[in-house]
Specification:
The protein is of the alpha+beta class. It has 2 domains: 102 residues, Immunoglobulin-like; 251 residues, Aminopeptidase (3-Layer(aba) Sandwich). The protein contains 8 helices and 18 strands. The strands form 4 sheets. Strands 10-11-13-12-14-16-15 form a 7-stranded mixed β-sheet, with helices on both faces. A 5-stranded mixed β-sheet has the order 2-3-5-8-7, with no helix packed on it. Strand 7 and strand 8 form a beta hairpin. Bound molecules: zinc ion (ZN). Zinc ion binds next to loops.
Length: 364
């Protein structure tokens, strides 16, 4: 039997092949400029035969509670459809249908620039204006989207941590809800940056804990990333009444398997989070439920001042803005919220509900 071929030469690719022994493959993910361990990997495999192969990760937590995401069509569509995985062993097995079959595997269901381009070509997407926020450090165009023309401005962002793809499916869902019902949102203008760390998204970096600090610790007078400087300028110019920053948590276990809002030290911001998370819990779809009891108060777990020593995220930065906007950070899990398995589509449904909740929240 020929050897299985594995590489990362695909958009967002990230893998280290440590050893291949017949049908057993030993893998690790590339940390690149991330300090410590993080969770992202994505690769393609070309199978030499119709046979079962087992992929092991040998260095920490790499699989969601639903195993790997699998694409049989070179990244166009993804599903949690790998039936055989072992979370204790951090491994999964896949049976190829035929010699020469190409299959892509990923830690998450990816959302790349190609997904955004596809979306902006749909009926909903065509009512969204595509602008350029700035150029990334590597010269890529960083998208800025706008929909609506009302006086109340809302700012949306995802991918301050570049691998947090489910957040962008939900962001798309927010825009789609507004696009589908413009008569319900005459008071609003939505501005959105879907890929804050654009280079990290396309290059397949971890992004999280990037040295000297990541995009989500860059807000303030000494910002080092062009995207963050441009976002701060945009926010000062447009003066949004709500800044809504969207993330995904760790790969699995505990708080990483449900939606939550990140509690804030600032009492005014926290009051907004309490009110909003009660609204979204009522609006959330059955395929992506939320519960305000899952929120993580400031000072609990990882959410303490030590976590922000490297610099400020966008939300606490907003606490000091003179027009006192609401600002919130939501964490949207990769594969399941409690017992409910989630997908690209259910994340879009959650986004639809977030748009309705934003309207209810701001009109109250
Ligand atoms: Zn994040």
């Amino acid at each position: 039997m020929h050897t299985i071929q594995i590489d990362a030469q695909i958009p967002g690719g990230n893998i280290i092949v440590k050893a291949i022994d017949d049908s057993q493959v030993l893998l690790n993910r590339e940390m690149r400029d991330t300090k410590g361990n993080w969770i992202y990997w994505k690769f393609r495999a070309v199978f030499p035969a119709a046979a079962e192969f087992t992929f092991h990760f040998d260095d920490g937590c790499c699989l969601t509670s639903r195993g790997p995401a699998v694409s049989l069509d070179k990244g166009k569509s993804w599903a949690w459809n790998c039936p055989r995985f072992d979370l204790k062993a951090e491994s999964f097995s896949f049976t190829a249908d035929y010699a020469g079959q190409e299959v892509w595997f990923c830690q998450c269901i990816p959302y790349m620039e190609s997904n955004l381009n596809e979306y902006l070509a749909t009926k909903a997407g065509q009512s969204i204006t595509r602008l350029e926020l700035c150029r990334s450090r590597k010269g890529r165009s960083v998208e800025l989207l706008r929909i609506g023309n009302g006086p109340q401005k809302v700012f949306l962002s995802s991918r301050h941590h570049c691998q947090e793809s489910m957040a962008t499916y939900a962001l798309e869902g927010i825009l789609s809800e507004v696009a589908a019902h413009p008569q319900k949102y005459p008071e609003f203008t939505f501005w959105a940056v879907p890929f804050v760390d654009k280079d990290g998204v396309e290059d397949g970096d971890q992004g999280k804990n990037r040295m000297p600090h990541d995009h989500a610790r860059d807000y303030g007078p000494n910002a080092i990333y062009p995207e963050v400087r441009a976002i701060m300028e945009l926010i000062h110019r447009e003066k949004p009444v709500l800044v809504f920053d969207m993330h995904c948590p760790w790969v699995r276990n505990g708080d990483s398997e449900h939606v939550y809002f990140v509690g804030q030290a600032d009492a005014r911001l926290q009051a907004g989070i309490d009110r909003f998370s009660a609204i979204i819990a009522r609006e959330a779809p059955p395929d992506f439920p939320t519960d305000p009891r899952d929120n993580i108060p400031f000072g609990q777990g990882w959410n303490n001042s030590r976590n922000y020593e490297q610099g400020s995220p966008i939300v606490p930065w907003c606490a000091s803005l003179p027009w006192q906007p609401s600002a919130q950070s939501i964490e949207i899990p990769f594969a399941n919220t409690h017992e409910v398995t989630v997908t690209a589509d259910s994340a879009r449904h959650l986004g639809n509900a977030l748009a309705r909740s934003i309207k209810l929240y701001l009109e109250a």
